[in-house]
Write a structure and sequence with these properties.
Shape: elongated
Strand content: 15-25%
Low-confidence stretches: none
Helix content: 25-40%
Strand order of the largest sheet: 12-11-10-13-14-15-16-17-18
Mean pLDDT: 94
Number of helices: 16
Number of strands: 18
Distance between the termini: 19 Å
Length: 483
C-alpha cells in the first residue's frame, strides 16, 4: 500500500524533524536526491557532462531545492542556467551555491535544453499559477533536446500549477516526465487530473517517516494488497461457505445489465449467484449455474445483495429496492437504485446497521448529493459517505473509495476504456461477489475497483472495448494477480 499526506501534516512533520537537525539539512537531503535522479536521467540520454540544464526557480524552499540540485549538476560539468521568476525573493544561499559551481542566471528561456527542473512553486502554493509563470509554462513545449526530442521535465516535489491536497488542476500546469518528491507522497501524486501531470513519481527519503504521525489523507492499493485480501477456496469450501450473492438488476428494458452484473459476480470469489428480476430467463440461458427467480422475496439464502443496475425506476423497482434494503445483509446500490433514493422518499431506508456501498458516477453523485463532486472529489466522496453512512465508490479515471469515518482510497488502475456503457454493471457484480464472500466492505470496494481497472486495461490492449470485453477480461486478470 502507498500512502499520501496533506500539506499541513507534511509541514508539521518537517518542523518536528528540523528541530533535531542542523539548519539546512533537510534542504540538502532533498537537493541531493533531486540531483541524483536528474543525473541518472541525463546519463540515459548522453551523460551529465556538457548537458544543457534549465532551472525554473520560484521563491522559497522549492526554489532552494532546485538551485542546490542545479549546483550539484554544474559541478559534474552540466551547463546550468537558472531562470528566476521572482528574483527579489530567490533563495540567496542556493543561488550563491549555483554561481560558485559555475551555473548562471538567464532572463529568458533558452532555445534548447536537455533537462528542465520545474521549481516554480512547491507544496505551499495555492490557487493557479500567476500570469508570468503561466506564460513560461506555455512556452516549455518549444524547448527541444539535443537529439530533437522534447526536453525532459522534472518537477520538484509537485508539478507547478496542480492543487496539492486535492489533485485538481485549476489552470495551466507543468506536465512532468518525472516528479521527484521528498519525504512522502502528497495527494496530487495519486488523485485526480494532477496524476497525469506528474509522470513517474520518485520518492526521496529525507527522514520524515518517523515523525509523520498524522493519518494519511489517501491510501493507494498495490497488487500485493489485493492478492492478500482476495478469498481463496480451500479443501473444505463449498458454494455456501464461499458466499452467495444476490442480484436485483436488469429488467425487460435493460436485460444486458442483468447479464453484465451476473458476469461480474461469477468472476468473483462467491460460490453461487442468485438472480431476482424480470431478465431471469436471459440470465439462465447465458449462465445455467445461476438460480433465477422473479422477486427478491423469492431468492432464498443470500449473503449480500447488488441492486439497481438496469433495474428501472418504476413501482416494481421501488418495491425490490425496499426489499433489499430491509435485509440485514451487506447491500450495494448502483445506477437506478441510486436514482430511486433521490428526493428523500427512501432516506429512512439508509439508516441501517448492515454494510452499505453506493457506486455513483458523477451524474448520479450530483442527483444524490445535490451538487457535482467538484475539484475535491475525495472530499466530496467522504462527505457523501458520512451523510449516507455508506462506503461510497465514486467512479472515474481515479475511482475514489470513501468511508463514513473519512478514510480515502484512490484506485491506480483506471482506464479510459471503462468509460463505456455497462462496465459499471460488471463492477457492481464483482463487488457484490466479494461482499458475499465475507470481504470487509472497504477492502471489497477497493479490490473490485482495482481488478475492474486492470480488466479495462487488458481489454483495451486488444482494441475497441465493450462492457462484455471487460467482463471477459476479469478471469485472466485475476489468474495473473493471484498466481
Amino acid at each position: 500500500m502507498r500512502q499520501a499526506w496533506r500539506v499541513t501534516d507534511v509541514r508539521a512533520a518537517e518542523k518536528t524533524l528540523m528541530a533535531t537537525l542542523p539548519e539546512g539539512t533537510l534542504m540538502q537531503r532533498a537537493a541531493a536526491g533531486l540531483a541524483r535522479r536528474c543525473a541518472l536521467l541525463l546519463e540515459e540520454s548522453g551523460g551529465v557532462y556538457g548537458s544543457r540544464v534549465l532551472l525554473l526557480v520560484g521563491s522559497g524552499d522549492n526554489g532552494g531545492d532546485t538551485l542546490y540540485a542545479g549546483a550539484a549538476l554544474a559541478r559534474r560539468g552540466a551547463q546550468v542556467r537558472a531562470l528566476l521568476l521572482t528574483p527579489e525573493r530567490v533563495h540567496l544561499a542556493g543561488l550563491a551555491a549555483l554561481r560558485q559551481a559555475g551555473g548562471f542566471t538567464t532572463r529568458d528561456l533558452p532555445t534548447r535544453a536537455d533537462l528542465i527542473l520545474d521549481g516554480i512553486v512547491g507544496i505551499g502554493a495555492s490557487g493557479g499559477l500567476r500570469p508570468e509563470a503561466t506564460a513560461i509554462v506555455r512556452r516549455l513545449g518549444a524547448l527541444r533536446g539535443r537529439t530533437g526530442d522534447r526536453a525532459l521535465v522534472v518537477a520538484v516535489d509537485v508539478p507547478s500549477g496542480v492543487t496539492v491536497d486535492t489533485g485538481d488542476v485549476p489552470g495551466e500546469s507543468v506536465t512532468a516526465d518525472v516528479t521527484v518528491t521528498f519525504g512522502c507522497l502528497k495527494p496530487a501524486h495519486v488523485l485526480g487530473p494532477a496524476t497525469t501531470r506528474c509522470g513517474h513519481v520518485d520518492l526521496v527519503d529525507i527522514g520524515l517517516g518517523p515523525v509523520l504521525h498524522a493519518d494519511p489523507a489517501v491510501r493507494v492499493p498495490q497488487a500485493a494488497d489485493i492478492a492478500a485480501w482476495w478469498p481463496r477456496s480451500g479443501a473444505t469450501s463449498d458454494k455456501y461457505t464461499r458466499g452467495v450473492v444476490g442480484l436485483a438488476t436488469g429488467s425487460d428494458r435493460y436485460p444486458g445489465a442483468a447479464l453484465l452484473s451476473t458476469a461480474g459476480a461469477l468472476a468473483g470469489p462467491a460460490g453461487m449467484v442468485r438472480y431476482a428480476g424480470s431478465a431471469r430467463h436471459d440470465v439462465v440461458r447465458a449462465y445455467p449455474s445461476v438460480i433465477a427467480v422473479r422477486r427478491v422475496a423469492e431468492a432464498g439464502r443470500v449473503q449480500a445483495w447488488v441492486c439497481g443496475s438496469g433495474l428501472g425506476t418504476g413501482h416494481d423497482a421501488r418495491t425490490e429496492l425496499r426489499s433489499v434494503l430491509a435485509t440485514p445483509l451487506p447491500v450495494l446500490l448502483d445506477a437506478d437504485a441510486i436514482s430511486l433514493l433521490v428526493g428523500g422518499e427512501h432516506a429512512e431506508d439508509l439508516r441501517r446497521d448492515a454494510p452499505l456501498v453506493i457506486t455513483p458516477h458523477d451524474g448520479e453523485f450530483k442527483r444524490l448529493a445535490g451538487e457535482a463532486p467538484g475539484a475535491d472529489r475525495a472530499g466530496a466522496a467522504a462527505r457523501l459517505a458520512a451523510w449516507t453512512n455508506a462506503v461510497v465508490l465514486l467512479k472515474g479515471d481515479r475511482t475514489i473509495v470513501a468511508t463514513p469515518a473519512g478514510e480515502i482510497w484512490a484506485n491506480p488502475t483506471g482506464s479510459p476504456a471503462l468509460a463505456t456503457a455497462g462496465t459499471g454493471d460488471v463492477l457492481a457484480g464483482l463487488l457484490g461477489s466479494l461482499l458475499a464472500a465475507g470481504v470487509p466492505t472497504v477492502r471489497a470496494a477497493v479490490a473490485a475497483a482495482y481488478v475492474h481497472g486492470l480488466a479495462g486495461r487488458r481489454a483495451a490492449a486488444e482494441g475497441p472495448v465493450t462492457s462484455a470485453d471487460v467482463a471477459a477480461a476479469l478471469r485472466p486478470v485475476l489468474a495473473d494477480l493471484l498466481g
